[in-house]
Amino acid sequence: DKVLAELIEPYEVRAAKLREFLEDVNPSLRYDIVPLVDPYGPAVTDADLQCLVVSEETRRGGEAVNKKRLENGLPGLALYEILLMKDPDHSQNEEEKISSSSLRQRLLGTLLRPPRQDPALPSRPYVIGLTGGTGSGKTSIAKLLGQLGAFLIDADKLGHAIYVPGGPAYEQVVAAFGAEILNEDGTINRKVLGAKVFGNQEQLKSLTDIVWPEMARMVKEQIREADARGE
């Protein structure tokens, strides 16, 4: 829950940086850097290992490693506990230690590029579009923006409103896809409609050519109304 893939460097780059750091610390030692593909890594299978460096907060992980080693018939490792350096400039919402989590938070709070100056864009209303797949956090971000005073437009809700009897796209959708997409009460059965269009690019384009312009019109209308209210 704290990993943003775009902010994680490729393994080869991270390993090279780590090796450079370790060799700066002590160039006389031999370093073997390996990727960790499970919670334990080689610590539970390498019989040559003798010591595991832990911090106060990772000691329990070291103890779990030793438990796993004993299960594998290997002797436990000596746990050498080190103190973590504190970050004197950490904010209230950041960890006290120097950590990659805090660094990622700072990166997320930094503009990737300056806002584009476009004289054709009005200074208000300022419109932000949230996109992404299921589970990407659109609802959470929208909720936070709403708490800051933003007026929210939910495209999913608009999409549902378009299909209801009397809605702006209802007659066109029924005419294009036939009465078989209707329930007994006259509402559009979205599952039946979905079965017709998903997997059929031509049918899907026919539907989006009807629905998307209506959704765009409704969004612009809501933006105008919100702006008139000073929201």
TrEMBL record:
Record's protein name: COASY synthase
GO biological process terms, semicolon-separated: coenzyme A biosynthetic process
Organism of this sequence: Ibidorhyncha struthersii
Gene3D superfamilies according to UniProt: HUPs, P-loop containing nucleotide triphosphate hydrolases
SUPFAM superfamilies in alphabetical order: P-loop containing nucleoside triphosphate hydrolases
GO molecular function, one term: ATP binding
Keywords, alphabetical: ATP-binding, Nucleotide-binding
